[in-house]
Amino acid sequence: MNYSANQKFITNHQGDTLETRLNNILTDTQYFDILVGFFRLSGFKKIFHNLENVEKIRILVGINLDKQTYDYLGFTKQTEFDYFNDEVVKDQYKQQIQNQVLNDPNEHDLELSVLKFIEFIKNKKLEIRVYCRGDLHAKVYISRYNNRISNHIKGSVITGSSNFSENGLNAQREFNVELRDDADLNFALNQFETLWQDASEVSNDFIETITTKTWLNDQITPYEIYLKFLYEYFKEDFQNHDNEISQYPENFKQLQYQQDAVNSAFRIVNQYGGVFLSDVVGLGKTYMGTMLCKRLIEKNHKRVLVIAPPHLIHKNNRGSWNNSFEDFHFKKNQFECYSIGLLEDIIKKEKTENYDIVLIDESHRFRSEFTENYPKLTEICRGKKVILVSATPYNNRSSDLFSQIKLFQSETNSTIPDCKNLKKFFIELDKRLKNLDRQNDAEEFIKISKENAKKIRQKILKYLMVRRTRTQILKRYGDDLAKQKITFPKVAKPQAIYYEFNDYEDEIFSKTLNAIKNELTYIRYIPKTKHKTLSNEDKAGQNNMKGF
Fold it and tell me: Residue 51 gets which letter from DSSP?
């Protein structure tokens, strides 16, 4: 032993730790008994390497276990064990062993020590029992030496303030004393034996819990690991969010696919500051956006600013945002709707800081940042939760998405995992298409475009977007739709009809297009522009129709 014979006290001060003392003692120990109220695996981790040559280890613990060991052993409340006989304790213990280890630290040293703990139990080298006759707050470590120690020293007893934990062994300032007199050793052993006989054996239960209820299980199949991954990844979406909205419209059909979209979007917008609601046309994005805003308002947000095309905010349109918000019982001071062409009016008339949510319908209209309105929209969205509603947020170039994402994410310091510099990411994607002509390099252009789209989905949109097709909805939510008597129209697959021009017809067609392309005014769609007293809002609406 590498310590002075008269050094009785251990304080965990200036290198004089209980961990060091025990590891020194264990090199010459044949039998090692631990009697503690608090047993922690972190303590076993600190000494298990020096237990290899110990012939027998007995650990007697109280019910006062830490959370980590509590979870490993499957215990619940201490009081459940205080007044029962051994068999009842064991039965209760087995019932509670289902208490899973949900938050294991997953440290390599801990894994090694736990596996060694199990090995010792299987080899009958280690036993662990739980004392259930009342509270046990002792801290006693009893070592009986082998023949390498002088015959007149049979062993030692360390007792004091240190529990069997990492903190107790070395981190906290403690006060322990080591006793080597035979009388002290015999007294401690007699007390230990008495308590040991009254304790419940839990060694095999420990093994069962570790090997069947925790990640330390070599029987887990790759498929089960995959399922665990899916659960962890989608855990928040799987959680029950029933009745998250206080009041639905009368006779409103609460469709599960819409509720799941709202749940996902709620998580995304809170984590990343914004979200794309991009289900295909006809799945009810207006209702989803409204329910999402309702959830946010009921979680202490203040007001919603809705920016949408004129026909989607007009009260005469039954499906407008105004009507949807009123149907969901928003108070008048909780939302305001503006035409997508009146951003200047929003800045002039509204105190935008009074809004903390901005919902933009047909957000693809802002896919270019080099427009007059884009800086205005950026100013409006700054510091707010942003909900972007569009079935087609991505059209030709990756920059289409970049301009919309920048409404709620920093372009060089984003919170998207593994993509801090969004600007660099999108510039590199656009560079791949820069020297390709859509017509002359069609095959390569399509190939690179598909590769870019895949990267965007995998690196960006999986964090920011909720998007499903009708086919996916029918496959995942078919039973719920049938129950609610909801059907989608069946659309026949498009059929290609080919025709060819001869050289003369092709020439006439091309000349005609070139002659009229700059003269097209789309007056059929914007007749109100000829009205002398047209309001600014109507002018904006007409121009939006033309641009669409």
Answer: G
**How confident is the prediction along the chain (548 residues), in pLDDT tens digits per residue?**
555 445 789 888 877 899 989 999 999 999 999 998 877 778 888 899 999 999 999 999 876 544 454 455 454 444 444 444 555 544 444 433 333 333 445 567 777 888 888 899 999 999 999 887 777 788 999 999 987 665 678 899 999 988 888 888 887 888 889 999 999 999 999 999 999 998 888 888 777 777 776 667 777 788 988 998 888 887 777 665 555 788 888 888 889 899 999 999 999 999 999 999 999 888 899 999 999 999 999 988 999 999 999 999 988 888 899 999 999 999 999 999 999 888 998 988 888 888 999 999 999 989 888 888 899 999 999 999 999 999 988 876 788 899 999 999 999 999 999 999 999 999 999 888 888 887 788 888 889 989 999 999 999 999 999 999 888 999 999 888 888 888 888 878 889 998 888 999 999 998 888 888 777 777 776 776 777 666 665 666 566 555 54
Do residue 28 and residue 138 come from a single domain? yes
- C-alpha triplet 204, 112, 43: angle, nearest 5°: 80
**Cα separation of 58 and 51, whole Å?**
12
H or E segment at 30?
A: strand 29-36
Does 316 fall in a domain? Answer: yes
Q: Alpha-carbon distance 513 to 533, whole Å?
A: 34
Q: How far is 276 from 360, CA to CA, in rounded Å?
A: 10
How far is 2 from 309, CA to CA, in rounded Å? 83
349: number of Cβ within 10 Å: 11
Q: What are 201's strand-pairing partners?
A: 129
**Rounded-to-integer distance, Cα 123 and Cα 121, Å:** 5
**Residue 128 φ/ψ, nearest 5 degrees:** -130, 130
Q: What is the DSSP letter of 383?
A: T
- CB of 255 closer than 8 Å to CB of 480: yes
Q: Is 469 helix (H, G, I), strand (E, B) or coil?
A: coil
Residue whose C-alpha is closest to residue 39's, from 140, 121, 133, 183: 140
CB 277 within 8 A of CB 389: yes
Instruction: Please give the residue range of the domain that contains residue 262.
Output: 236-483
In a domain, 384, yes or no: yes
Spatial separation of the C-alpha atoms in residues 315 and 336, rounded to whole Å:
13
Task: For residue 352, give the DSSP letter.
Answer: G
Geometric angle at alpha carbon 474, from 470 and 479, rounded to 5°: 150
Torsion of CA 50, 39, 7, 193, to 10 degrees: -90
- The rounded distance, in Å, linking the Cα atoms of 402 and 431 is 14
For 8, list phi and psi in degrees, rounded to 5: -85, -35
Q: Is 426 found in the same domain as 530?
A: no
350 & 453 share domain = yes
Asked whether residue 112 falls in the same domain as residue 252, the answer is no
The DSSP output letter for 494 is P
CA distance 435 to 445: 10
